[in-house]
Amino acid sequence: MLAGGFQHVAASYAGVVAPPLVVGAAIGLPPKEITFLVGAALFTAGIATLLQTIGFWKVGARLPFVNGVSFAGVAPMLAVADAQADRRDALPVVYGAVIVAGALGFLLAPYFCRLVRFFPPVVSGTVITLIGITLLPVSFGWIQGGRTDRPASLTDLGLAGATLVIVLLLRRLLRGFLQQIAILLGLVVGTLIAVPVGAVDLGPTAHAPLIGFPAPFHFGAPQFAVPAIVSMCVLMLVCMTESTADMLALGEIVGREADEEVIARGLRADTLGSAVGPLFNGFANSAFAQNIGLVALTRVRSRFVVATCGLMFLLLGLSPAFASLIAVVPRPVLGGAGIVLFGTVAASGVNVLLKAGLDKGDNILIAATSLGIGLIPVVSRTFYDNSAIPETLKIILDSGVSAGCLTAVVLNLAFNHLGARRSVRGD
């Protein structure tokens, strides 16, 4: 359980810490405060993951889901910062907006979950495929060392390729428990290979304190500004859409149908984690698709393994020194393992599409168009950078999963429901 939980930590760590690193640097926080913000993100990710896996009352999908900071929130948070006279004063405004959006999402969860009826296999398969495809560029960015403005060096490519081959060999040659932790073993071996070539940076461990609690409202009491609240409410709807798709994907993989009740409980966990997060200086949380690939690959379906991951996140948030140790894993090593993880998700979606029957009716047209729309922001991040497009609409369009999901739902209604009704009337 400990090894399995740590493997989930390793797979999702970069996703959890990336948003606070980006936001902290963008608003001009000093390194010490950025470190604090990262610890807060880890701590709140632990709370949200425990809410999702263990839960209470009608909160928590009880699926092996990791919840963490949503990267979709970076753009609207930076927009809020730009609206302030001093960008360093933006965090209290962001926190106030996230609290309101999380509370609103919690109230909407039992109604939002009813959208699951609009996710037949042709829609869910398309969305699952999009989740995997949209995550693959993340692993490519890791291979480039986290800097997409430059090509990957030979060292980066070598480390990623070596890690990828090691993971595949371990999966092929090992059996039982060792096969299940092949990703973790691959990351360890890849990091050891990176040491002699000087690709391991021990800088994050140099000044990290052993213990550090994310004191409530460290950056000031939350402030409630209407424009920021509207922006974060739109973000929350996007996160709820993506979480619904993620729960459907994971339900397919673990063989447990994600019905309306499961999705409602999962959305309550998402939104409650988001509403509580700002108390400890965290941001909006959502389900992490990265870990779906890990569950599919290892076939370890226990939610308690992921709950162990949540406990580890809590401890990492309370100990920046230990959190910095995971940061030692070179990005190219993570990228090599990410190709397997995220590719597995995409392949799972293709499998669902095959079951849906692409040769039936207009299913292939629905899947093709939705995949095309969903891939636009993946292929070109600046495609929607037009000042005439409202910012709230950009939040949806810039998320390949959300844009593709909405397209698939609308086309499925148009071709498989409205068209069928006209046909019946014509008969």
In words, what does this structure look like?
The chain has 427 residues and is an all-alpha fold. It has helices at 2-26, 31-53, 74-82, 90-112, 121-143, 154-173, 176-180, 182-194, 203-206, 226-254, 260-276, 290-298, 303-318, 320-326, 331-356, 363-379, 391-397, 400-426; strands at 67-69, 285-287. Strands 1-2 form a two-stranded antiparallel sheet. The chain is globular and about 60 Å long. The model is unreliable at 421-427 (pLDDT under 50). It is a multi-pass membrane protein. One of its GO terms (cellular component) is plasma membrane. One of its GO terms (molecular function) is xanthine transmembrane transporter activity.
